Task: structure prediction
Amino acid sequence: MIDTVANRIVQRAVEKAISEKGEIGIQVAAYLKGQLVVDCWAGIADVETGRPVDGDTLFNVFSVSKAVVSTAIHVQAERGLLEYDRPIAYYWPEFAQNGKAEITVRDALCHHTGTPQMPPGTSPETICDWDFITRGIAALAPILPRDKPAYQSMSFGWVLGEIVRRTDPGHRDFGRFVEEEICKPFGITDLWLGVPDAVVPRIATLLDDGSSFIAPEDSWFAQSLPNNVRLIPEVFERPDVRKACIAAVGGIFNARSEARFWAILANRGELDGKRLLSAERVDAACVPRPGNDPDPVCFNAPMPLSQGGYWMHADDMSLVYPAKGRRTICVPGAGGSLGWADPDTGLAVAFCHNRMMHPKDGLDHPLSAIADVLREALGL
Result:
């Protein structure tokens, strides 16, 4: 049930972010202990036509999608269909090529495969071809040590998504698996990894406001996220890209549905009397991954990741700064999208917007002030 007082307070904060922070269109939704308590929106979905944002508007959320990928892996583990410490090649034999036979599912969750790179031939066209990319990833050789972090900007979704597909008794496409095993059972209607034609008119158009840059071609970053498929409107507003299942970065959600997804995790695996994951499995996912060495892919910055495949709050990481909480798990998306779950308070929040920017620090993130207002309004 919507908390009308809190909703009104957060609505004013959302409108202030548009009038004072330069935001274009925003949605914010929050669940607390399994109940939808905040559902706000404001601004413009399409600056050319003037189409306003409403509660059903869809937004590109980029890497927030990785949270769904990680959760799908945990679903398969919950069902006894995979073990985290088994080699990926046990489920996907082709992955063993070129020295990858011992890399485990847990390594992939923790970005420790040593293969952050995308395969030769990666392009806007080929990222729409699941089989082409997974064949290419299976043939890769590690370029970094397995015992060190190496952020899998794009490949994360194909590696873990293919494990899900291989361990699924029905061998369903990954997007279909998510829809049928996570979304439909929990009434999540607008969490898309590959959109159908019918919802395309509801997608907000993107404005790149300094979120993107062209990395040096010889950098680890450009190998992990090649410049020709970087996370910009010119690539991710293509009709073929929107319709493809690009699991790590291709999600198109609205805040209401995304917050409901995070609510399952904030409520320790259960929502509305249905259980997706055990409380113990969610708790295990809310623990920092072993070590936090500088990540060479991310220009030697330490990455605050959990062993469950999610990120965690860090005061010195602007993209996750708003998601406060000792055990909060979150995932930020390119341009400032963010979703999180705090199992200690039961709070789940989703922030979607169409102004792609890169905050200089945590306080510069447009969600920071909104998040603080939201927590205060809910008495947290």
